[in-house]
TrEMBL record, chains A, B, C, D:
Homotetramer. This is Low specificity L-threonine aldolase. It holds the Pfam family Beta_elim_lyase. Residues 3-290 form the Aromatic amino acid beta-eliminating lyase/threonine aldolase domain. Its cofactor is pyridoxal 5'-phosphate. Belongs to the threonine aldolase family. It comes from Aquicoccus porphyridii. GO terms for molecular function: lyase activity. The keyword Cell inner membrane does not apply. One of its GO terms (biological process) is amino acid metabolic process. The keyword Transport does not apply.
Amino acid sequence: MFFASDNSGPAHPAILDALTRANEGYAMGYGDDAIMDEVRDRIRTIFEAPEAAVYLVATGTTANALALASLTAPWQTIFCSPVAHIHEDECNAPEFYTGGAKLTLVGDSDRMTPAALRAAIEGEGNRGVHGPQRGPVSITQVTERGHVYTLDDLAALTATARDYGLKTHLDGARFANALVALGCTPAEMTWKRGIDAVSFGGTKNGCIGVEAVIFFDPAPAWEFELRRKRGGHLFSKHRYLSAQMQAYLADDLWLDLARRSNAGCARLASGLRALPGVRIDGTPDANMIYTHMPRAMHQRLVAAGGVYHILSDTLDSGDPDEALPARLVCDWSMPDSEIDRFLAAARG
Amino acid sequence: MFFASDNSGPAHPAILDALTRANEGYAMGYGDDAIMDEVRDRIRTIFEAPEAAVYLVATGTTANALALASLTAPWQTIFCSPVAHIHEDECNAPEFYTGGAKLTLVGDSDRMTPAALRAAIEGEGNRGVHGPQRGPVSITQVTERGHVYTLDDLAALTATARDYGLKTHLDGARFANALVALGCTPAEMTWKRGIDAVSFGGTKNGCIGVEAVIFFDPAPAWEFELRRKRGGHLFSKHRYLSAQMQAYLADDLWLDLARRSNAGCARLASGLRALPGVRIDGTPDANMIYTHMPRAMHQRLVAAGGVYHILSDTLDSGDPDEALPARLVCDWSMPDSEIDRFLAAARG
Amino acid sequence: MFFASDNSGPAHPAILDALTRANEGYAMGYGDDAIMDEVRDRIRTIFEAPEAAVYLVATGTTANALALASLTAPWQTIFCSPVAHIHEDECNAPEFYTGGAKLTLVGDSDRMTPAALRAAIEGEGNRGVHGPQRGPVSITQVTERGHVYTLDDLAALTATARDYGLKTHLDGARFANALVALGCTPAEMTWKRGIDAVSFGGTKNGCIGVEAVIFFDPAPAWEFELRRKRGGHLFSKHRYLSAQMQAYLADDLWLDLARRSNAGCARLASGLRALPGVRIDGTPDANMIYTHMPRAMHQRLVAAGGVYHILSDTLDSGDPDEALPARLVCDWSMPDSEIDRFLAAARG
Amino acid sequence: MFFASDNSGPAHPAILDALTRANEGYAMGYGDDAIMDEVRDRIRTIFEAPEAAVYLVATGTTANALALASLTAPWQTIFCSPVAHIHEDECNAPEFYTGGAKLTLVGDSDRMTPAALRAAIEGEGNRGVHGPQRGPVSITQVTERGHVYTLDDLAALTATARDYGLKTHLDGARFANALVALGCTPAEMTWKRGIDAVSFGGTKNGCIGVEAVIFFDPAPAWEFELRRKRGGHLFSKHRYLSAQMQAYLADDLWLDLARRSNAGCARLASGLRALPGVRIDGTPDANMIYTHMPRAMHQRLVAAGGVYHILSDTLDSGDPDEALPARLVCDWSMPDSEIDRFLAAARG
């Protein structure tokens, strides 16, 4: 009954099998392995982007920071949501990798609107040499609150950025979850909607630790390679990154896993919503739920071994009916039986 | 009729005379000149801080960035007002000098309140290693909107910072203007109210280009010296910085100049407020006014040669009675006759 | 017949098995997994250092850069050999992670001597605020030319550093190879000889990608954690790093693997030395040989499928007897049969 | 009798007069003053470079660091002499401003040779993504040991750089001294010999504190302006920088002052060389002498009030005839009478 995060479950067995298969003989290091050639081709095919530059790194923070550093000068500011991972959860990695750029927070929700983005852009870059200059826009899809931007949303945001000549980056730590939610193609969710660079996540969706960075215009490629190396992110035994991504993409495993976690989350939400005192706004778009549940229900769940984020300090004492907020995330590995057991515990 | 800024007028003649006096014979470079010894002693006396570390640099951005860098680790965030000079007007200098720290904006006005500061501090530093860590608080006195914090305001802000073990920096680009407005001593406006480090401005108040950085606890002294040197801010012919500051502090010139600019500003505000359609909220605390004046009045002033910041793009066309916002700043050199001429032009 | 590097062979099967074993159920992320607790204890035991701070990262460049950044201020210089990996092969990672520190090259060989180190230290830090300040000393063991410092060598170098109050870092990318060559304990090769921090390599010796960073004085621990996070080097699914290190250290696997690669290298060197025209200076200390071999011999080896670094551009044309330099490295996986096949090809 | 440095004497009175003249009325700040327009034109004329980008800063370290940062990526290395000011005397300013680039030391003297430069360039940039990439070449004219490169020397160095597609920067802290020594035009000593960017010094040659940075290809102009601002080097009251440079260039003052200091130095060298036990290699090219003089002579000079750098720790004790090295520098202000008094004291 572990719903704390999708980075805490096991990797899919196919990923481990791929490591074992890759563990044969001698392979060139540092990204020159043959599996990487396959991976690059496969990603270009999946994204319908035959010219794209494609790189692998091991963590999502790295993918975001290196991608953004390649698009951002040190005197610029990156536009993002106030709850963006790059702002809240990377210990100033973007500031570090860009050499001191700033982040400008857009609006007051996880979902940036074109109007809020336009206002934020207009608010910067009007002071000549004195203020920060306008830099790229970073969009998180699935957002940090579990929402999925529609394709029209994405197009409107990138059009706004383009009005000012700005590039856009997609933080796709949960790329697959968004994709299956929208039922579109990778190209449709990215460059066909104006996205310039993508952090394409694997770690949260069944891999051990691998993310791709994709530039649809390969101009920053060499610079990216140097940034990756001097950041310490170029693996000598790179084949083990490649093998993870290879297995992740093979036979649409990545889509299957995302469908599983989204479906698990829907089952969980549907079950919870039927319980008295539980409030969930809307359907969860992907595999993450923000909900309010009565204190007594939380207490029962914790006592039964449920693990998830209760966003309150007052679990232990207070009105048993008081609604306390919580975040629940399903990963690919969560069986329906566990979800049902959790719901039973919630029910009491 | 120049009210655009207090960095555009002439330097006081005493400052230039001091340069000429200093221009005798050979002097040790790099801050080891005898005048600097005098200046250090004088500042320690003025601030009643015999142990303070005292340094000179040539620009306000430098004073702020170097002072903050000495108090801030790269993984921390600096708390400041959303209109702070360090946020809006230094082209990411604090981010650069700290090696990639972040700025967290406190509240939504130029004057931080203890409650807003507490909320901002509480909002950071709760995510362990993931989020930015809490860094120092930077307070601007006079604020960028012309307000002066009372001594109680300052004490309450530094007490809030201290509750979390955080240091405070005072951006005193207009230190003297605030001091004469409050009628207190330098010590009362700084360390007696809990301030740890000060950017003590001279440039905007009659100097050519000199600011002191003062640390009441001299622990960061050597680190500051290294930061200043590698930032390119250590002058070989340092005596010309020292001489400016020496003359600025001699015979209370700095206080006289600040009184002049504050008085000029009061005269200007009082005259404007008497005119129909002009709105000024409150008395200007120091030497800066934010006001609204009718479009036609702006047009008359511009036509008559008035120079100041009209904070609107629609000066030329529209309802003549529509109120357009503006900022006016008085420097020490503005004679009453010019102010009166400006008021006459406003009157039409 | 792959002797190009010890980062190109397969991982030991026990490492892969450990990943599979670790791939059960849900585990706290970001270094809070239970396996990491075991690994920390085990490393403290092995190093007889119960207070040591112990962290895992995925690459050697990261281990070095983060360890050095924790010991070096941006205005300092790091003392190292002119062929140090941190100088030649990390694309300015130390400069990046330290925020702009410098590297001062010591002497003209891979093995620093105390005299050369003393001369280098004396050459810096004498210009007050003007020059770079003296920072830590970084020693590579096994050196980049395959040499192993004796315990007395290490003690003499760290004593020299300590004379100036400087810390020492050991780049132990091939730590195990050096240890078995010296036949001493980890404590004897590190803190008992004055070393303050160690990059303890696993990747080149049979792991997939894992290195430990060890600080014998744990003072920099929290700073290191923040540096690791904002560098993007904190793995969410950290258990897969922990599991590698766990298996690496279990049952002295790490020592066995190092003994195998050293023995393979000795067999190779002994076989080569017996051939006419081959020159190897001294016994290889560990698992790396620098040698000169006749051009014709190189040509035969390449034709037979031998892979290794020929340090010359003139393989194809020239006197068949001319000696061309080369580097050969044995990893743990190289069977004697392959070595013998290589020697047979060399013999022609 | 002050021969310690050319940054310790007075500024020329014309420079101070210019400040006074500039101190009239209100002027746009931040480089938009009318005097700067004149200065830019004048420098373009003097350098026969009508398109050049021209900026002013207050210190030589700043000029070098900002100019180099505009030409250098963080993963590159700058080629310079081992005694270059940027290496020895700027406390890692180039590393700081470039965001972590490296310096590669060329040869073992103050004068780089094309052969040594070629060898240094060949030694870098051959390791793909692993090593630092090749960056610009920085040439100091006058060198830190008082030598002046000939025009052919400069052409040969820049041709070598260009062979590898590298840019060249001239550190001209003593630009005027070199120029009058060579008797050529500014264009001949710079872009006509292949130089791309110049730090054009004023501070050491009679100014208070002003240096120009000149890019013959203005492409980096906007980036430079942003770097200057966020470095804290953009003066609000910029007219006082402009005025110094205006007066410095007017009526060839800059050339007169350089001729005076070079002539004073020649007089000093000639007088010293006539004394028994004094050794000076060659004629001093500009205004700096490296010499050996007997210990007893040094003792007499110090006793008489002579101030200069004795490059030995053993002034006080030892053989009176032992030759101890020293550096002597003449600035523009040194009268012949003082030089003769110094020579008399040396003679004893």
